[in-house]
Amino acid sequence: MQHSVTTTELFLVAMAIIFSVPYLVWRVARTEYFAPLVVVQIVAGVLLGPGVLGHAFPEYYATVFTKDVITALNGVAWWAVMLFVMIAGIELDVRKAWSSRRESGITAGLALGVPLLFGCAAATALSFFPGWMGVRAQSWQFVVGVGMACAVTALPILILLMEKLGLLRQPIGQRILRYASLDDVAIWGVLALVLMDWERIGRQGAFLLSFAVACIGFRALMRRLPERDRWYVALVWLAACAFGADWSGLHFMVGAFLAGVVMDAEWFDQEAMDKLRHHVLLVLMPVFFLSTGLRTSWTLGGSVVFLVAGVLLLASVSGKLTGVHLAGRILKWPRGEASIIGWLLQTKALIEIIFANILLDKQLITSEMFTALLLMAVASTMLTVPVVAPKLRRALLDKASRIGIARAADAP
Fold first, then answer.
1. Are 353 and 42 contacting, i.e. CB atoms less than 8 angstroms apart?
2. Is 242 within 8 Å of 255 (Cβ atoms)?
3. Residue 235 confidence class, pLDDT cut points 50, 70, 90
4. Are the C-beta atoms of residues 292 and 370 closer than 8 Å to each other?
């Protein structure tokens, strides 16, 4: 008797592909130095999408990635990215940045403002050509949205890369986290402004007012709860905030970030928080990467999309490095330090992809622009470790040389 493949079976086939292909590439090709597993998963999501796999094997693609399977995968992806964004919000510590506010303010301001200007200039040029601006976007929304995508720093991935480089617990690593934390707050604030729907301004105002009032009671409740109960309450809070933001016309990811940013990291065990972030990246986020890949489009031609991605990458990296070098001159940093900090802060990866997903959902950019932003995010992240690692080695050698010279001068 012939067996017809069910949606559940196709879903499981898709899940097996999602988790096996990136892992095998990562292990067999040994890409860890220039492309951590998370980057391989993002690239695999693009390759498994309609632009590559779907184009090469349309029948196979249509058989596995049916409408029902994609709907199920999207549900998992939505919850995954909400958890991830909430954790990123919890890990922000603006109070530490405030303790050294002059240095943090100058560096974070220039590290965000200069690439934002460079990105806005690139977006302004692109706005004169059809196929990049979304159907619901006003010119300023498109320009500011793409400009901010060029200025984003991916804080969670930055943490992973600094752990790999041995910088996370060093003084310079803690400084970089302060700069990235301040920029993250500004980025989500600007995003909320870009997403403002003036036809639904009443709803958005009601949501923000309700959220502010609810925060008072929520924070008071969380302080009284034992830690094991805080995790469950935090998940309910996440769902409620994400629903409210989406209902008001902002976006559920904005609500997820707000849900996390009003929670204190001290309410949770740091080791447990690190494990949760790791497990979300391991168990759930690969599904989000695939759902992201399903949104990629090459209808304007692959060469044009790659060209635009290159322009955006140039604007992003040059803007970030210029801004941080200006901060280094003002604050009189040691030689070479600004370059290390700038290259680490230009890491895009997940947060930029999340940002671009929101712009695409709201039809402020087209699928082609989304694909260009995705390629830019992958390239910026793959550049980080290969560029920073040699700079760190040179900085350590210079430091050792200076110490040796000083000791020789002090010797009798």
1. yes
2. yes
3. very high
4. no
Three-state secondary structure call for residue 264: coil
Rounded Cα distance between 42 and 25, Å, is 12
DSSP 91-146: H--HHHHHHTHHHHHHHHHHHHHHHHHHHHHHHHHHTTSTTSB-TT--HHHHHHHH
CA separation (Å) from 294 to 55, 192, 288, 348, 358? 12, 25, 10, 20, 15
Task: Indicate if the pLDDT at residue 307 is higher than 80.
Answer: yes
- Alpha-carbon distances of 81 from 123, 159, 288, 386, rounded to whole Å: 26, 17, 7, 28
At 8 the pLDDT is 92
Q: Are 86 and 257 in contact (CB under 8 A)?
A: yes
In 3D space, the residue among 239, 234, 232, 267 whose CA is nearest the CA of residue 255 turns out to be 239
The Cβ-side half-sphere exposure at 385, using a 13 Å CA radius, reads 19
Alpha-carbon distance of 81 to 259, in angstroms, equals 13
Q: Is the pLDDT of residue 214 over 90?
A: yes
Cα–Cα distance, 209 to 102 (Å, whole number) = 31
Per residue in 49-84, pLDDT (tens digit) is 777 777 788 888 888 888 899 889 989 988 988 898
The DSSP code for 346 is T
Query: What are the beta bridge partners of residue 133?
Result: 365
Q: Can you name the residues that pair with 365 across neighbouring β-strands?
A: 133
Distance CA 264, CA 355 (A): 24
CA distance 231 to 225: 10
Single out the residue of 381, 411, 354 nearest to residue 145, CA to CA: 354
Mean pLDDT of 88-116: 81
Question: Exposed, middle or buried: residue 157 (CB in 10 Å: 0-12, 13-18, 19+)?
Answer: buried
* Cα 352 to the center of its chain, rounded Å: 4
Tell me which residue of 176, 146, 144, 181 sits closest to 163, measured CA to CA: 176
E strand or H helix that includes residue 307? helix 302-331
**Contact of 312 with 146, CB cutoff 8 Å:** yes
Contact 380, 316 (CB under 8 A): yes
- Four-CA torsion 117, 123, 127, 129, nearest 10 degrees: 140
